Amino acid sequence: MQTNVIALPGNTVGDGSSVEIKAAWKILSAAEKKSGRFHTTQALIQGSLTPVTVGLVGFHAFISRGDQGGWATFAQVDNAPVQAPVKSGTFNFFNPACKGPADITTTCPYNVKDADPGQVVQITPDDATADRLNAYMHTLLKQYDPKSPWQYYNLVNVQWPKVPVPLSSLKAPVTQPLPDGTPNDPTLVNAVLETFLQQANVGCIECHQYAATAASGGSKPTNYAGYSFMFGRASTPQ
Description:
By secondary structure, the chain is α+β, with helices and mostly antiparallel strands.
């Protein structure tokens, strides 16, 4: 790490490519399983050996290009109301009928950490260009398979560097936050993956430019790691 900058493979010819996915799931009710509105899989939860059906509710995709890369985030369409609470509708993470415990005339707080019950509102609406793309893709998906669950997922927005900085141009060891490459849009947050980070100028690149290698020998990590937090979770085999 003292002589090499950590850079995931890019998409140049002969260099291969890297895609990193971070996903969020919820345990589905019987009605949700029958709805056909979720991509599902079986999962073991909290050490249980009995699998349960979980549905995908959101995910990030990071495509490495040898620089700041391309970032996209997707959400299931029923997750939460957009911009403000609503008084009707059915959502995965918002109940319009929820009342606060202290005052029955007050709705439950939303986007508040450790609130019980928790409520989610998507603060920043999907990008307008993403809306048009979503409509087009939903049409194609329904033509291909009228029952495809992917027609119930939306692209929220995409982030990329307007002034990309190749990691190969940096001198090792890289001890400062990696370059942000001047993102096209500084705000890119997923309401269910980053509920409590929803604010202007918070985005994937801004966060991941601080991704570092794991600590070694009790010392804090000093080498920043290709925008991937996976390197910070590395450990010596036992």
